[in-house]
């Protein structure tokens, strides 16, 4: 494992390898712009569907409130995520190297640390979640409540994810359960940690990317940092207590045959506050074929791409990534 940012960042100035070219540094944001907030507890399924569809088409990203996940569970989950990242580098290495097949691991910056042109100011803990019986034995056992809390948390998020995908499928005119089997059952949790940064104006926590997933349900902490790119502008995503940020991934773009787009987004850092976030993504199994949904393809809407396996997609995604940098 490369040296985690959190293990050396205290009292150091920003190393040159983290300094981005001027055009890619975070600048000023337009005032007063926000992404849509959808109330999943509202009456009227048709209204909710309509709001999700519009937000998906316009931004590829929206926040959800009243999603049914209890706030004390969210607090407990964020608590164990922060505690995990506060462990010593040695403990983190031990806690994430239990599976020889690497279903649980840590990395820093991106998956291409060794070859990327610039580094980014984040550490990530990634592990598979489903089926739970297969993977939980490889999850961290420190902090002691990690497994218990995260098992309940990820089961809840799975429900939220599939509920939103049902709305999206219906909005596209597909069967509501289009995503509910192979396309979403490979669930991955990525716990990001961005330590306080000596100069947030020169670097990023994550550079502009689309998630290589079907859909991502993000728990932000109360520290701001996420931005989405829309109409050639960056828009800040305001942290709302207990809300989730839903991001459409690159795979939905393919499955919807271009009707929906994966949102491009990035993360800025903060000079005095650490930020911890958790991305829970719904993905296909590695051998599953990804292709435009047949119901969305006809003579006037030809398929925009051929079918390929999720595994091939990930290999290509990592190879093509901007700056030689790939995020998951
Ligand atoms: O930490 C965030 O706000 C976003 C993280 C992200 O973009 C990702 O995990 O793909
Ligand atoms: Fe992302």
Automatic annotation (TrEMBL):
The entry's keywords: Iron, Metal-binding, Oxidoreductase, Vitamin C
Molecular function terms, GO-annotated: L-ascorbic acid binding; metal ion binding; oxidoreductase activity
Annotated SUPFAM superfamilies: Clavaminate synthase-like
Every Fe2OG dioxygenase domain range: 184-284
Protein origin, superkingdom: Eukaryota
Family label: Belongs to the iron/ascorbate-dependent oxidoreductase family.
UniProt-recorded name of the protein: Fe2OG dioxygenase domain-containing protein
């Amino acid at each position: 494992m490369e040296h985690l940012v959190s293990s050396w960042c205290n009292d150091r100035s920003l190393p040159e390898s983290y300094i981005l070219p001027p055009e890619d540094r975070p600048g000023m944001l337009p005032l007063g712009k926000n992404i849509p907030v959808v109330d999943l507890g509202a009456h009227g399924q048709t209204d909710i569907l309509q709001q999700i569809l519009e937000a998906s088409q316009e931004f590829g990203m929206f926040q959800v409130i009243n999603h049914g996940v209890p706030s004390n569970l969210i607090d407990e989950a964020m608590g164990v995520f922060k505690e995990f990242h506060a462990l010593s580098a040695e403990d983190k290495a031990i806690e994430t190297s239990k599976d020889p097949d690497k279903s649980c691991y840590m990395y820093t910056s991106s998956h291409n640390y060794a070859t990327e042109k610039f580094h980014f100011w984040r550490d990530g803990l990634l592990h598979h979640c489903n089926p739970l019986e297969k993977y939980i034995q490889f999850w961290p056992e420190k902090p002691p409540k990690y497994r218990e809390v995260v098992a309940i948390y990820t089961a809840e998020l799975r429900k939220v994810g599939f509920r939103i995908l049902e709305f999206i499928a219906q909005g596209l005119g597909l069967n509501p359960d289009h995503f509910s089997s192979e396309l979403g059952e490979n669930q991955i949790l990525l716990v990001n940690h961005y330590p306080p940064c000596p100069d947030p104006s020169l670097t990023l926590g994550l550079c502009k990317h689309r998630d290589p997933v079907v859909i991502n349900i993000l728990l932000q902490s109360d520290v701001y940092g996420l931005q989405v790119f829309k109409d050639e502008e960056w828009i800040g995503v305001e942290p709302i207590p207990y809300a989730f940020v839903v991001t459409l991934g690159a795979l939905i773009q393919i499955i919807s045959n271009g009707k929906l787009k994966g949102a491009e987004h990035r993360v800025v850092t903060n000079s005095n506050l650490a930020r911890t976030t958790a991305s829970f993504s719904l993905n296909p199994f590695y051998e599953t074929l990804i292709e435009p949904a047949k119901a969305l393809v006809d003579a006037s809407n030809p398929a925009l791409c051929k079918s390929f396996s999720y595994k091939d997609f990930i290999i290509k995604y990592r190879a093509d990534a901007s700056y030689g940098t790939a995020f998951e």
